[in-house]
Amino acid sequence: MRLAFLGTSDFAVPTLDSLCDAGHEVALVLCQPDRPAGRGRQLQPGPAKRLALSKGLPIFQPQVLDDAALERLSRLEMRAAVVVSYGLILPAALLRLPPLGCINLHGSLLPKYRGASPVAHAILRGETVTGVTTLLMNEGIDTGPLLLQKATPIGEEESAGELEARLAVTGAGLVLETLEKLSAGELTPRSQIVDRQTYAPKIAVSSGRILWSLPAAGIARQVRAYNPRPGAFTRHRGRILKIWRARTAPPSGGVEPGIVIAGGGTLQVACGESSVLELLEVQLEGRRRVSGEELLRGRLIASGDRFDDGEAWQDEGPA
């Protein structure tokens, strides 16, 4: 099938790769413009563009989808457009352009968790099951008719990055199935009832601040949900400490939230409701990632130290 593909991030890569491997004709790959990255802040292509370059696919990176961009797309004679983590709003004229429509892959079981950060919000809310959805795009945000869905359990200690990588691969297969069934007339799009209570907006960097007065189970979900972006963090002696992996530990009554408990060689922190969080992987500002035990052995932190509560902070957290 002759297609246009619109995608930018890592989540888009497995779908683009699968479309090519399955023999679909990807007539054009649209990606967001290159962004500055690294210490030198040089312009770098996104993951989907790097794959497209390796496959010799034509690439188009408009700043906006204006009339000139639509004119180029109208000449493709595509049957469908596949959209996966693209990042730009599609105008109504583009949505109407392909005969089979613009097919979007979303990282949740819609109508739950519409929006930019479905994986993180599913973990934050303690969901045990999530999945992927293909839908026909309309002018709303993830509100179009549903096509296919596939569910998967969420691991008890699975991070958002790990889960998103799994969903990207599952979603690639679902996109192929969707295209096959749409082309054969075997799919009937289903209208969805939009649930505004589970909207999943973009996560702000400041959301990663840890409030130690909260129960450890909730903080553990925060650490998982914000790994790798934007990262959960606290402060220790004025420096940012990012927490990459953590789990709940047996409760320890009588210790004030935010106080370090260094018992048995493990790095633990007292939290709200007499709960305790064990820090498994951490990163002190200006240093590499290490285990909690290694941080203790290096005497960079000690039992009785206090982590600052995010409510007292005046800035926006780490860059």
Q: Summarize model confidence as the mean pLDDT.
A: 94
| Principal-axis shape | elongated
As a whole number of angstroms, the C-alpha radius of gyration is 22 Å
Count of DSSP helices?
8
Label the structural class. Answer: alpha/beta
State which percent range the strand residues make up. Answer: 25-35%
Fraction of residues in H or I helices: 10-25%
Distance between the termini: 43 Å
Order of strands, main sheet, comes to 5-2-1-6-7-8-9
In total, the number of strands is 15
Low-confidence stretches: none
Order of helices and strands: EHEEEHEHEHEHEEHHEEEEEEH
State the oligomer. Answer: single chain
Largest sheet: 7 strands, mixed
Describe the protein.
By secondary structure, the protein is of the alpha/beta class. It contains eight helices and 15 strands. The protein has helices spanning 13-21, 47-54, 67-74, 92-95, 118-124, 160-183, 216-225, 292-297; strands at 2-7, 25-30, 35-37, 42-44, 59-60, 80-84, 102-106, 129-136, 146-153, 232-236, 239-249, 260-263, 266-270, 276-284, 289-291. The strands form three sheets. Strands 5-2-1-6-7-8-9 form a seven-stranded mixed beta sheet. Strands 10, 11, 12, 13, 14 and 15 form a six-stranded antiparallel beta sheet that branches. Strands 3-4 form a two-stranded antiparallel sheet. Helix 1 runs parallel beside helix 6 and helix 5 packs antiparallel against helix 7 (216-225). The radius of gyration is 22 Å and the shape is elongated.
